[in-house]
Amino acid sequence: MGIIIKTPAEIEKIREASKRLAFVLDEVKKIVKPGVSTKELDKYAEKLIREQGDSPAFLNYRPVGAKKPFPASLCVSVNEEVVHGIPKEDKILQEGDIVCIDLGINHKGVFADMAYTVPVGEVSSASKKLMDTTQRSLMVGIDAARGGGRVGDIGYAIESFVKKQGRFGIVEVLAGHGVGREIHEDPYIPNFGKKGTGAKLVPGMVIAIEPMLNNGTKNVVIGKDDWTISTADKKRSAHFEHTILITEDEPEILTIQ
Ligand code: MG
Fold this sequence. Notes:
The protein is α+β, with helices and mostly antiparallel strands. The chain is built from four helices and 15 strands.
């Protein structure tokens, strides 16, 4: 497909899509508490998206290689689940869980993508550190995404930061990506890498950066449902994601209200 440099009109629409997405995800976050099912979070996200006249980007999404389409609007991944958790009526959030909510939106034909991991009630200090480090690594990655730089600068920044924070596994088989005309576009943006390598970052590119950190090793496995990715050692994982616009200078975070 190749990397797409967005037109100013497209950027304006993606900015609006991203704002709407951030609103929905923030609202969903407010109802995360012990006793709520992951399906309730999904239903609420879909309702809010449709109320704004938009549509969920992940519902029925079937990337190349997937055995079946994703059956929900929101990916809800709890504790050892890294990403792509399928919401379920009988999966009930418990005090002390950490839950990743990941959502994509289609607003007037353009897409935005965003995720964060939130605590359910009071969580352990190890879980807090995991979430905090992952969120900070996202911000470090965003700061490294400058027009004139390279995709590898982002992964390098994330990886170097994480290594200084302690023993975390950086998931390597999943990555950030271009976004805008489709939910997943080129370039592929790993959360590790070498400075000065990979595709050039050009003002007008819109990308999603999304580090996933594990409390154990980087290894992950795919579940029997063909979607849910979990850590191989069952230790917890966290995931944060923003859609951003590459500029000449500091990138603009789009998925913000
Ligand atoms: Mg994404």
